Amino acid sequence: MKILKTDQVQLLDKQTIDNQYISSFKLMERAASKVVEILKDRHKLYHNSFVIICGKGNNGGDGLAIARLLKEAGAFVKVYLHQNKKYTPDNSQNQEMLDDRGIKIEKFLPSKHNIVIKKDDIIIDALFGMGLTEAIDSEWKQVFDLLNTAVCQDRISIDMPSGMFADIATANDSIVFKADMVYTFGSPKLALLLPESAQWAKDFTVVDINLDEQTLSSFETKNYYLDKAIVKELLHTPTKFAHKGIFGHSLIIGGSYGKIGAVALASKAALSIGSGLVTAYLPKCGYSILQSTISEVMCLTDNEADYIRLFPETDSYQAIGIGVGLGQNADTVKGFAAFLKDNTNKAMVFDADAINILASDNSLLKFLAPGSILTPHPKELERLLGGWTSDFEKMELVKGFTAKHNVVVVVKGAHSEIVLPSGDIYFNSTGNWGMATAGTGDVLTGILTGLLAQGYNSEHTALIGVYLHGLAGDFVLEDKHPHCILASDIINKLSSAYKEILNLE
Ligand SMILES: NC(=O)C1=CN([C@@H]2O[C@H](COP(=O)(O)OP(=O)(O)OC[C@H]3O[C@@H](n4cnc5c(N)ncnc54)[C@H](OP(=O)(O)O)[C@@H]3O)[C@@H](O)[C@H]2O)[C@@H](O)CC1
Ligand SMILES: [K+]
């Protein structure tokens, strides 16, 4: 799914009205009724009251229409409207429709407001949406302080949390509504996908309002929301004549004393995602552990007992995943550098200490084979690139890195970002907070290695792998609370994830 910029969203809005022969009021009504349908699932309409805070524009118009539809559905609503000289036509029309139905609209000024929130209330924020052009003035502070601190049942934003920009950074000290849930129209907005926005948008749902498909497909974008449709297009379908040679041989290099489990997880994940064969290369101390943990994985050991000094030959393998549990022993670091220089044409998956070693010696980066995949978590990324002042700046830094080194970077996080050498970014739509636990990164490394081994190019590998990893994590939630997720649970659900994408029972 494409992530659109503000001007594209506005054009899409207009083109939808033109091409579908509908009025802008009708489109607003469509948007509002979709939100009300979703609200019926989220809340029992009779149990709570909705306090709807509306602005002067079409975001406010949405709020007014939602108020009317909620009232018609039997909910108790209280409507506050920013007092203004001018409202958009659809906003005005919705005010009249509320008047006609005897629903009172309380007008307020930001500097002098009469808003009251009770503990059973659900706040709906419809003050500013995509029309926000500048940071909200401090005269609004007391209104937002009240909305953000009042004890209530739920905080919902329409389209965007008011005060938050959709595609540029919002300063940390800005006045912004803090939403538990954002119902955003048509496509996710870029800012909603970035970690720094979590303080204002805990979660979001894309509300499909049947915007014009033709216009949508004509838009150019560098940013995508990685969804099932994209991944389904990329997956190969094996034939009945397939044999294990076709599915490739993966080599997982890693492990050090006390960190052999990481290799076990990555190796098992590589097998479970469909690599025909998997060999693990690890220090001697890991031999018995690995052989007894996973029968299907072959094992090669270094001469050292507790860490890796000499790295293996790679000719027999279609894919290599390196770094899980590796440690940074001085001999390992030296061996790793020599290994990189010997394998400048072999795209690999780099994780954990392999990334840390690259970060501590930038001169090694030029030896990265084109098409390699790096999977840093935020701390590892910071070591690799230095700091950044906003997630928007971080994206630009990563894009510079992927272009310079011709590699793919997977920035791990709530919506993991897959940054391609072209500068295209895919934000993952699967996964959950329970996956932020030990070993899930090792599992991802194994998945990516196993996909590379099967002949996917590195870009497709990263897209398929990150999506499946998250989806498998979501399947774990069928029987476990997020707190209880283990990395190995994700491996066990890879099959369900595959079946879901291929629509198999
Ligand atoms: N696109 C779609 O597909 C659909 C869109 N829909 C809805 O329309 C919404 C966009 O509506 P919108 O364009 O009327 O702007 P909105 O967000 O209501 O802002 C209101 C006005 O506030 C002003 N303003 C700006 N910054 C300010 C500030 N810092 N402090 C004070 N004022 C400030 C600025 O006016 P100005 O002051 O520049 O005259 C702006 O015009 C969108 O988010 C969605 O909810 C749906 O109905 C249907 C489908
Ligand atoms: K809003």
TrEMBL record:
Keywords, ordered alphabetically: ATP-binding, Isomerase, Lyase, Metal-binding, Multifunctional enzyme, NAD, NADP, Nucleotide-binding, Potassium
UniProt KW Isomerase keyword: yes
Matches recorded under PROSITE patterns: YJEF_C_2, YJEF_C_3, YJEF_N
Pfam family for this entry, one: Carb_kinase
Record EC number: 4.2.1.136, 5.1.99.6
Binding site for AMP: K412, G413, A414, H415, S416, G441
Residues where K(+) binds: N59, D125, S162
Cited InterPro entries: Carbohydrate_kinase_pred_CS, CARKD, Nnr, Ribokinase-like, YjeF_N_dom, YjeF_N_dom_sf
Domain YjeF C-terminal per the UniProt entry, residue ranges: 227-501
Catalytically driven reaction(s): (6S)-NADPHX + ADP = AMP + phosphate + NADPH + H(+); (6R)-NADHX = (6S)-NADHX; (6S)-NADHX + ADP = AMP + phosphate + NADH + H(+); (6R)-NADPHX = (6S)-NADPHX
Cofactor binding, per record: Binds 1 potassium ion per subunit.
Cofactor: Mg(2+); K(+)
Residues holding (6S)-NADPHX: 58-62, 129-135, 159, 262, 325, 377, 442
BP terms from Gene Ontology: metabolite repair; nicotinamide nucleotide metabolic process
SUPFAM superfamilies: Ribokinase-like, YjeF N-terminal domain-like
Entry's family note: Belongs to the NnrE/AIBP family.
Record function comment: Bifunctional enzyme that catalyzes the epimerization of the S- and R-forms of NAD(P)HX and the dehydration of the S-form of NAD(P)HX at the expense of ADP, which is converted to AMP. This allows the repair of both epimers of NAD(P)HX, a damaged form of NAD(P)H that is a result of enzymatic or heat-dependent hydration. Catalyzes the dehydration of the S-form of NAD(P)HX at the expense of ADP, which is converted to AMP. Together with NAD(P)HX epimerase, which catalyzes the epimerization of the S- and R-forms, the enzyme allows the repair of both epimers of NAD(P)HX, a damaged form of NAD(P)H that is a result of enzymatic or heat-dependent hydration.
HAMAP family for this protein: NADHX_dehydratase (MF_01965), NADHX_epimerase (MF_01966)
Subunit structure: Homotetramer.
Protein name (database record): Bifunctional NAD(P)H-hydrate repair enzyme
Species of the source: Myroides albus
UniProt gene name: nnrD
